[in-house]
Amino acid sequence: QVHLVESGGGLVQAGGSLRLSCAASGRTVSSYYMGWVRQNPGKEREFVACIGRSEAIYYANSVKGRLTISRDNAKNTVYLHMNSLKPEDTANYYCAVDRVRRLSSPWQTIDYWGQGTQVTVSS
Fold first, then answer.
1. Hey, CA dihedral for 101, 45, 89, 17, is it positive or negative?
2. Distance of CA 64 to the CA centre of its chain
3. Pairing of β 18-25 and β 3-7
4. Assign residue 8 a region: left if phi > 0, alpha if psi is -120 to 50, beta otherwise?
5. Of 77, 69, 92, which is closest to residue 10 (Cα–Cα)?
6. What pLDDT digit, counting tens, does each position of 61-109 carry?
7. pLDDT for 39-49, tens place per residue?
8. What is the Cα–Cα distance from 34 to 26, expressed in whole angstroms?
9. How many CA atoms lie within 13 A of 122 on its CB side?
């Protein structure tokens, strides 16, 4: 069992920055796929970024160059550094972990989810 707790969300103006954190407990997650999925009400859930085995990193095309995922294995924590934020980045950001595959749909098959942290970007 893995418990995930996100933090760092908030309200920021367009062009601003935030850093999201996801702290895992219960298991060491350094060998798992771990990252971020976001969703706005009325929209489909959207993959954002993921870091997997051997530090392999994957990004959605919409966030490349603006959002950066990183992992601190000593803290069992993954971060999402968010720069040059846009209003379309507004969403609830969920931390997710899967033991064997990259984060993708069907979302119901993902092993673990956090409660989410809200990011709101105003213009």
1. negative
2. 13
3. antiparallel
4. left
5. 92
6. 999 999 999 999 999 999 999 999 999 999 999 999 999 999 999 999 9
7. 998 899 999 99
8. 14
9. 4
Instruction: Examine the pLDDT at 53 and tell me if it is beyond 90.
Output: no
Counting DSSP H helices and E strands in the chain, the numbers are: 0, 11
Which pair of structure tokens corresponds to residue 56? 């392999």
Asked if residues 20 and 36 have their Cβ atoms less than 8 Å apart, the reply is yes
CA–CA dist 2, 118 (Å, integer): 21
Q: Is 82 exposed, middle or buried (0-12, 13-18, 19+ CB in 10 A)?
A: buried
Write out the two tokens for 2. Answer: 């893995």
Task: Tell me: cis bond preceding 106? Omega within 30 of 0 counts.
Answer: yes
* Contact assessment for residue 32 and residue 98, using Cβ atoms and an 8 Å cutoff: yes
